[in-house]
Amino acid sequence: MNTFNKLILLCLLAISNSGNAQQSVAVTFTLQDVASLERYLSEQGVAFRATDLVTLKNFNAFANYNKQDKLSVPEIYFFNREGFMVRNRFNKNECTEVIGDIDKINAMKAIRTEKLSAWLSQIAVSEGNDTQTSPDCTIIIDWAVFAGKEMNAQAFEWYREINKQKANGRKIKCYLLNLDLQQSWNLTDNQKKALGIGE
What we know:
Layout: H1 3-13, H2 34-43, E1 53-56, H3 59-67, E2 75-79, E3 84-86, H4 92-100, H5 103-107, E4 110-115, H6 116-120, E5 123-124, E6 137-143, H7 148-167, E7 172-178, H8 189-195
Parallel strand pairs: 1-7, 6-7
Antiparallel strand pairs: 1-5, 2-6, 3-4
Helix pairs in contact: 4-7
Keywords: Signal
Signal peptide: 1-21
């Protein structure tokens, strides 16, 4: 079995939730683009800023994300004002609590091996994205059409809570990171076949 097929098998078998429990999920991949993602968010009742919506840069980024066990929905990552990740893998209640008191992020111990700049190098940030010059924190929320409505609901709730904090004057940069396969990646016919796209 080649590396590409192993990756696909892993994707199909190990979409996990943020409760750290592995959950077997049947995944149907479809190619997405910005318009289809915006349509999906609107259908789910998510009031989003177009500049918050980002995707993985290419298929290699998708593969790296999977290899690093980051292909999880819902998932949220917090980075302090210095650009370092703080404690990874909060449970759902802890995430909501941290979002409610953003100052906690900068008080937590940083993971010095996890820099925001490295994460952003794997993400296609849209033109006009307002990268705040000095936010108090940066938050990345993973979601995916392939994960389905139920798995995405928590991610969208976190996003709503973050926007409430921003409306109250908090300086937060938030990326709503979509993990779906993208039309713009120009996957080969063999890759599409292995992923079950177009059958």
